Amino acid sequence: MSILELKNTTKTFGDTIAAHEVSFHIEKGEIFGFIGPNGAGKSTTIRMIIGALTPDSGEIFVDDQPISKDPHYKNKLTYVPGDVNLWGNLTGDEVINFFMKTRGYTNTDRKDELIEKFRLDPKKKCKAYSKGNRQKVALISAFLSNADLLIFDEPTTGLDPLMERSFHEEVIRAKNEGKSILLSSHILSEVEKLADRIAIIRDGQIIETGQLADLRHITRIEYVVQAKGDLETLKSLPFVHEFTQDHDSTHILVDNDKAPEFLEALHPLQPMQLETRPPRLEDIFMRYYEDRSDQS
């Protein structure tokens, strides 16, 4: 069952189409990755979901109810942007307590656990916090909420690698508790590590949605080869890309759906060593934009 569904959601600003017929859904207990570069339409889409923007057309559903007809749907969501603004004269602890009170959450042991885990000094005033510490306050508040859907837009901005790991652990914990997560991030390895499914948005349009394994057809796989024959002869093949040499090995990127043809062409060259490296989400993401540049 879906916790969130967007159907042909469109938003324009003058002549600029920020989101065009965006459609996807998030299942309950699912981590959904939402990726694309700046200006692709991620933040516009998220702002429509949280009610900060009204779609020009299309519909958004939370728990199968259109949000346009449910004034209380926001109680089921919590949202953390990439750049958090807090009340400067309040301490971190006071801000967290405020959000706990608005959500009716009273587990102070859990609050203390998260404060320690994210290494936050809760007694400092927010105006004295760095960007990373402001982010921690918002993340702690989000994980303390009883929301069914957690929405994170570039959530680890300003966090060091140790705190990023803490964030990842808490996302998995939230999922295990049955919550759903919408994770929008430029850190592709983060999405690859956490997400059950992903959507790629470009120029305001969703261009792919699915499990990472289902998107392998649009990427390339890396082969590391040592052979007796001249591997340079493979350069002319239309499905071979980024032919580079490293010490005694040759690195070759091959269209994933052309692996049989590549191996057939490689066989006469008497390969002595062959290693394959599976494609990553970053490869999938960049492939789209490379292809678009080639067409422009």
Automatic annotation (TrEMBL):
InterPro entries: AAA+_ATPase, ABC_transporter-like_ATP-bd, ABC_transporter-like_CS, ABC_transporter_ATP-binding, P-loop_NTPase
Domain ABC transporter as annotated: residue spans: 4-228
Keywords: ATP-binding, Nucleotide-binding, Transport
Gene Ontology terms for molecular function: ATP binding; ATP hydrolysis activity
SMART domains membership: AAA
PROSITE patterns reported in the protein's UniProt record: ABC_TRANSPORTER_1, ABC_TRANSPORTER_2
rRNA processing in keyword set: no
Keyword RNA-binding: no
Transmembrane annotation, as ranges: none
CDD domains: ABC_DR_subfamily_A
Family to which this protein belongs: Belongs to the ABC transporter superfamily.
Protein name according to UniProt: ABC transporter ATP-binding protein
Organism whose genome encodes this protein: Salinicoccus halodurans
